[in-house]
Amino acid sequence: MDTAIWWIRRDLRLSDNQALGAALTHGRYVLPVFILDPALWNSAYSGEKRRAFLLGGLHALDADLRRRGSHLIVLHGRPEEVLAHLCSATGATAVFAEADVSPYARRRDKKVAARCPLHLVGGLTLHPPEAVRKPDGGVYTVYTPYRRAWRALPMPDAREVLPAPPLIPTPPNLAITGELLPEAPALPSPIPFLPGEAEAQRRLRDFMAEKINTYATARDFMACAGTSELSPYLRFGMLSARQSAIAALQAHDAASTDAARESIVVWLDELIWREFYMSVLYHFPNVRHESFRAKLRAIEWVNDRAVFAAWQEGRTGYPVVDAAMRQLLATGWMHNRARMIVASFLAKHLLIDWRWGERHFMQHLIDGDPAANNGGWQWSAGTGTDAAPYFRIFNPLLQGEKYDPTGDYVRRWVPELARVPAAHLHHPWTMPAEVQREAGCIIGVDYPLPIVDHKWTYRRALAAYRQARDSSLW
DNA sequence: TTTTGAGTTGTTCGA
DNA sequence: GTCGAACAACTCAAA
Question: How far apart are CA A88 and CA A126, in angstroms?
Answer without folding.
Answer: 34
